[in-house]
Amino acid sequence: MALTRVFAHRGSAQSAPENSISAFLEARRLGADGVELDVRRSADGALVVHHDAAVEGIGEIATLAVADLPNEIPLLDAALEACASMTVNIEIKNDPGEAGHDPTDGLAIDVVAHVVDLDRRSEVIISSFDRATLDAVRRASAEIAIGLLLGFGVDPIDVLEGLVASGFNAVHPFVLLVSAPLVEAAHIAGLAVNTWTVDAAHDLEAMARLGVDAVITDDVPLALAVIDQVQQGLE
User: In the chain, how long is the greatest CA-to-CA distance?
Assistant: First the structure.
């Protein structure tokens, strides 16, 4: 069984502001295998690393220029550079219900272009809850891995066949949706299972025993310790 990898959710946000350069650097220092971060587009077309649609006390990112944003909010290029040597899971935030939603391929194409320009194609996974956004990523690049995020209300097993047919590389289910049949079916189909957000020790242990490919976690030290313990017990 392959070792489950540990991705720091929005960087190591326990000891630094989430989705910040310092959080990404701390994740690397702690030994995380990867980082999960969020990308949106500003009013002046920049790719901004921030989870929420709005910056508290300032306004919605889609209506703000980069010069209007706090200094601690990085752009995607800087974040990728800070995450050198780690896998980077870029979640494209493109919810149809939020300000700044891009119904065209533009946002996906811009993200792909940045990844290609920095020569990070083999080290990046692009994920989103928006299937159309990921289809646009696949049209823009056949080399960058893509994974569909799934929350409650969807049986992950039901979507596997369609993901394979569309050239996806992974499925990213919420931790409570992960089961042994899902992991087995996904792996048989050639899809990785990267699950979020896995913080409790018992959930981390369960995911490692099921053989998921990566856990996205807020607690990197705990995840590394639990997964190492499980792995030693399996040897």
Answer: 53
Q: Structural domain tally of the chain?
A: 1
Structure tokens given for 87 = 């896998």
What three-state secondary structure class fits 189? coil
Domain that holds residue 78: 5-234
> CA separation (Å) from 48 to 69, 105, 212?
9, 17, 30
Strand partners, 128: 148
148-202 pLDDT, tens digit per residue, is 999 998 999 999 999 999 999 999 999 999 999 999 999 999 999 999 999 999 9
Nearest 5°: CA angle at 78, between 76 and 82? 115
Q: How far is CA 1 from CA 29, 58, 124, 141, 223, in A?
A: 26, 47, 23, 30, 17
Q: Name the pTM for this structure.
A: 0.97
Report d(CA 216, CA 203) in Å as an integer. 12
CATH number (domain holding residue 184): 3.20.20.190
- From the number of C-beta atoms within 10 Å of its C-beta (0-12, 13-18, 19+), residue 48 rates as buried
Closest CA to 184 of 147, 209, 148: 209
